[in-house]
């Protein structure tokens, strides 16, 4: 029997890698995309084929986690075996500007999903496994290393919303015996990372500075330390969690800590540049409350799931820089062509 997966946030960085993984494993994949006035499916366009031509291995549905009724309709239509709940306003700095929306989508959106799944299971007698995308931001001010026993100390509206989602998930697991797993994932990046997150902001700038289309890069706190891994490795952990006999919560991390300054050093060096020649500090990118240091202890995921990252931190930096050097060169070439 073909397994059916439903992914919220399929158009995001993780959604695109997870879709590739599940399709390769033979799943029929359904994803929820937001209606937007412009195309927002760039990260999955290479996977999506017109169903009229090829038959639907990947099916997209319009929806929004602020709209519980719409989600219920999609759930009844798709009847998934597994749900990967990735949708969120995922930018920490922006959550200070949009706290209410961030909490509505991140916390209440998760509750809407869990309630819909509860009713669906009761009415249909089916069983559905659910993955909830939790974050190392939930640890916030708790000193590193952080693991599943570390007490949360969230430092942003985003993180508070994620903590609420985490405990909603545990409450539904304990109350109704549902198969729900919380992944507590540390920062994971890739060439598909949104361009306003610090790693991609840096590698995009490196590519453009090298190509001559950008001179300066404005950043905030260079002292913050993060545990950065490759997104393609982290979606494997999500899938592994839903294949276990029992639902549980897992930290997923590399176990290494690097500062934003370290990332700058490595990324600019990779392109033969010195970041000190190009970077300006701009207080606009500072946060009202910062998370200083995150370093995950993922022993449990490694022992119980058999999860192991394949891409090292230096390989990740190199992959992103090389991608963005090529991208900036293509942008310059098309700009020159347009001006010819
Ligand atoms: P991302 O690239 O920002 O993707 C977020 C996805 O959620 C996008 O598909 C976005 O749609 C969708 N979305 C946003 N608001 C929505 C709404 N109201 N209704 C429906 N969909 C909505 O994030 P990511 O890096 O893939 O992360 C995936 C999940 O893991 C998120 O929940 C994030 O908070 C969490 N997480 C990420 C990391 C990390 O380091 N990447 C670490 C820990 C946890 P659009 O494409 O239309 O914007
Ligand atoms: O790249 P960031 O915006 O990622 P952040 O805040 O760690 O959040 C990401 O990882 C979380 C997992 O821990 C996810 F849950 C969340 O959804 C998101 O994917 O910032 C990283 C660090 C911060 O300390 C920030 O202050 O970089 C610092 N930083 C310095 N200058 C900057 C900048 N961050 C951004 N975005 N832009 C800057 O110019």
Determine the CATH topology: Rossmann fold
The CATH architecture comes to 3-Layer(aba) Sandwich
Distance between the termini: 56 Å
In sequence order, what are the helices and strands, one letter per element? EHEHEHEHHEHEEHEEEHEEHEHH
The biggest beta sheet reads: 7 strands, parallel
- CATH 4th-level superfamily: NAD(P)-binding Rossmann-like Domain
Relative helix content: 40-55%
Strand content: 15-25%
Give an account of the 3D structure.
- The chain is α/β, with parallel strands linked by helices and 340 residues long.
- It has one domain: NAD(P)-binding Rossmann-like Domain (Rossmann fold, 3-Layer(aba) Sandwich).
- The protein is 44% helix and 15% strand.
- The chain has eleven helices and 13 strands.
- The protein has a seven-stranded parallel β-sheet with strand order 3-2-1-4-5-6-11, sandwiched between helices. Strands 7-10 form a two-stranded parallel ribbon. A two-stranded parallel sheet has the order 8-13.
- Strand 5 (129-135), helix 6 (157-176) and strand 6 (179-185) form a beta-alpha-beta unit.
- It is globular, with a radius of gyration of 20 Å.
- The protein starts with a strand and ends with a helix.
- Bound molecules: NADP nicotinamide-adenine-dinucleotide phosphate and ligand G4F.
């Amino acid at each position: 029997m073909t397994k059916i997966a439903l992914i919220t946030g399929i158009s995001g960085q993780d959604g695109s890698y997870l879709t590739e993984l599940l399709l390769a494993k033979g799943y029929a994949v359904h994803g929820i995309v937001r209606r937007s006035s412009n195309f927002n499916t760039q990260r999955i366009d290479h996977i999506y084929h017109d169903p009229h031509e090829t038959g639907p291995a990947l099916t997209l549905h319009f929806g929004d986690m602020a709209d519980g009724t719409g989600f219920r309709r999609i759930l009844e239509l798709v009847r998934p075996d597994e749900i990967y709940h990735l949708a969120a306003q995922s930018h920490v700095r922006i959550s200070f500007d949009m706290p209410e929306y961030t909490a509505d989508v991140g916390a209440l959106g998760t509750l809407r999903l869990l309630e819909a799944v509860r009713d669906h299971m009761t009415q249909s007698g089916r069983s559905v496994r659910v993955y909830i995308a939790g974050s190392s931001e939930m640890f916030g001010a708790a000193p590193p290393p952080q693991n599943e026993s570390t007490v949360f100390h969230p430092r942003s509206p985003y993180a508070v919303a994620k903590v609420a989602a985490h405990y909603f998930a545990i409450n539904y697991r304990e109350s109704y015996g549902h198969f729900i797993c919380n992944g507590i994932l540390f920062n994971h990046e890739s060439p598909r990372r949104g361009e306003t997150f610090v790693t991609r902001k840096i590698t995009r700038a490196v590519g453009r500075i090298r190509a001559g289309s950008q001179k300066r890069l404005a950043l905030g706190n260079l002292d913050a330390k993060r545990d950065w891994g490759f997104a393609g490795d982290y979606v494997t952990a999500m899938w592994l969690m839903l294949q276990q006999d029992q639902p549980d919560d897992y930290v997923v991390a590399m176990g290494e800590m690097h500062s934003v300054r370290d990332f700058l050093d490595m990324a600019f060096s990779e392109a033969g540049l010195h970041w000190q020649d190009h970077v300006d500090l701009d207080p606009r990118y500072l946060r009202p409350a910062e998370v200083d240091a995150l370093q995950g202890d993922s022993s449990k995921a490694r022992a119980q799931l058999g999860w192991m990252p394949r891409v090292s931190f230096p390989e990740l930096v190199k992959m992103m820089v090389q991608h963005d050097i090529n991208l900036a060169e293509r942008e310059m070439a098309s700009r020159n062509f347009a001006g010819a």
